[in-house]
Amino acid sequence: MEKTIDENKQGESLVLEQKVGNHRKLFIESYGCAMNFSDSEIVASILSEEGYNTTQRLEDADLVLVNTCSIRDKAEQTVRKRLEKYNAVKRINPKMKVGVLGCMAERLKTKFLEEEKIVDLVVGPDAYKDLPNLLAEVDEGRDAINVILSKEETYGDIAPVRLNTNGVTAFVSITRGCDNMCTFCVVPFTRGRERSRDPQSIIEEINDLWQKGYKEITLLGQNVDSYLWYGGGLKKDFDKASDLQKATAVNFANLLELCAKAQPKMRIRFSTSNPQDLTLDVIETMAKYHNICKHIHLPVQSGSDRILKAMNRLHTREEYFELIDNIRRILPECAISQDMISGFPTETEQDHQDTLSLMDYVKYNFGYMFTYSERPGTLAERKLEDDIPEAVKKRRLAEIVQRQREHSEIRTKEYLNTTVEVLIERQSKKSSEQWSGRTSQNIVAVFPKAHYKVGDLVTVHITDCTSATLIGEATGYSNYN
Ligand code: SAH
Ligand code: F3S
User: Residues of the chain whose pLDDT is less than 50?
Assistant: First the structure.
């Protein structure tokens, strides 16, 4: 089941919580990672206080916001194309204002205003609370920009307006930024240094979601396992914290446990785990609580020690294997997924073979796989030549994808003739007679609807499968419902 991240993925705003009395219309869409989708919900909440309700029709919008991704060149090209579309609409609706949010805003800053005439507003990921002031400037006919990165901002005090929701699953952001400096990655530059959100506000958000009928949350961060709350501030400044702050600090294992206990029937997922920060405590906490889902997204990027070092990934192949062995020992039923990059500078055929053999060892359940895309300003761009021809990158990627397909098939077949627990999320895309949901391991399962409904946690006997999907029949409500 190879899942390549869909860079065209687009979250048009479906409106749940419209504020009465609001008269302006906001069209907001998101590209890239889950964090961007979550941030757009924060932006919608801030603007709801400013008189904006969301609309799904671009043509109706007073304000169009696009939350952008810079992770690969292709993601940026997709956004540029979207701006062309807005341009066409603006010809019909000249009063429409256009703002760019997120990583491209942070990376390009004023260049955006210079290069794209359509853009009135540029706002980086830490500056969304300044939107009311910036919009006031735009209303007065000036372009507006704020791309200041913050040491404290976590938006912990903002209750997101849920967009595009199925009413069952929701994202809850717990950390912002990243301190890891992987040499290929633009995120530390666009999202700033790492900081964690107050656990109290996280628990309150989860409690509120449960009240509203949500059944599963995903704790989000670039590197969730590095979560550390000691009263606010950057992770890197933890050394300077007081003894009391240090003694009462909350790490990711603690936070997971707090969440699992706060709502014992709420399913808890998290993403993404960086191998160097995933501790045994986290794995053991996962084992202790049924409601913490048994899936770890554990990107490795490469199976070659030399390339891992050049990427500044702070672990070796051997250490990664040790981690995998520990997960298998403590959590035998846990699914593991990967991110992989083919064609990082200097990658040899032998390095590529090392990646394939690492995959053979782990046999991931699924993964997200990419060719290397050089990003301006990263260490790799400054120090290393992008020397692997595109055709070679693509051929290696195809081999990685093929290997993943084989492993996914093996993994999916392991569930044949077993009974799994599935949270029903929506109608199956293929049949209106079937429900679709996910197992604790994050594997999609489809089955006849019978008398069940969206939001039910059911047991499903698996009778068939494709490489990505389990097919079966519900046998009853789960005891954990
Ligand atoms: N820790 C983050 C990683 C964000 S980027 C998280 O929350 O997922 C997601 C994935 O994109 C990375 O794991 C990596 O596989 C891929 N990626 C990042 N930069 C890339 C680049 N320059 N070229 C190709 N793929 C890249
Ligand atoms: Fe990027 Fe590495 Fe952080 S991939 S988001 S710098 S963990």
Answer: 1-16
Q: Can you give the pLDDT at residue 164?
A: 85
Position 8 scores a pLDDT of 33
Q: In angstroms, what is the span from residue 369 Cα to ligand 1's centroid?
A: 9
One domain for residues 366 and 346: yes
CATH number where 223 lies: 3.80.30.20
DSSP string, 370-407: EE----TTSHHHHHS---S-HHHHHHHHHHHHHHHHHH
Residue-wise pLDDT for 246-271, tens only, equals 999 999 999 999 999 999 999 999 99
Measured from the CB, is residue 108 less than 6 Å from ligand 2? no
pLDDT tens, position by position, 405-453: 999 999 999 999 999 999 999 999 999 999 999 999 999 999 999 999 9
Q: Based on the number of CB atoms within 10 Å of its own CB, is 221 exposed (0-12), middle (13-18) or buried (19 or more)?
A: buried
* Cβ atoms of 164 and 170 closer than 8 Å: no
Cα–Cα dist 12/115, whole Å: 25
First vs last C-alpha separation in the chain: 28
In short, whether 296's Cβ falls inside 6 Å of ligand 2 is: no
Distance in Å, CA 476 to ligand 1 centroid: 40
Check residue 272 and give its pLDDT. 95
- Asked whether residue 255 falls in the same domain as residue 402, the answer is yes
Measured CA to CA, the distance from residue 345 to residue 371 in angstroms comes to 11
Residue type, 118: I
Q: Count other Cβ atoms within 10 Å, centred on residue 190.
A: 26
Give residue 470's domain range: 419-477
Is residue 159 situated within a structural domain?
Answer: no
Which residue's alpha carbon is nearest to atom 4 within ligand 1?
A: 222
Q: Is the CB of 190 under 6 A from ligand 2?
A: no
Residues in the chain, how many? 481
Q: Are residues 409 and 423 in the same domain?
A: no
CB 274 less than 6 A from any atom of ligand 2: yes
Q: Is the CB of 338 under 6 A from ligand 1?
A: no
Nearest to 98 by CA among 119, 81, 84, 69: 119
pLDDT in tens, 327-380: 999 999 999 999 999 999 999 999 999 999 999 999 999 999 999 999 999 999
Residue 3 domain flag = no
> What is the average pLDDT score of the chain?
94
What is the separation of C-alpha 223 from the centre of its chain, rounded to a whole number of angstroms?
10
Q: What pLDDT, on a 0 to 100 scale, did the predictor assign at position 17?
A: 57
Domain count within the chain: 3
Give the number of whichever ligand sits closest to the CA of residue 189. Answer: 2
Q: Are residues 125 and 212 in the same domain?
A: no
Whether 227 and 332 share a structural domain = yes
CA distances from 124 to 13, 74, 108 (A): 20, 20, 10
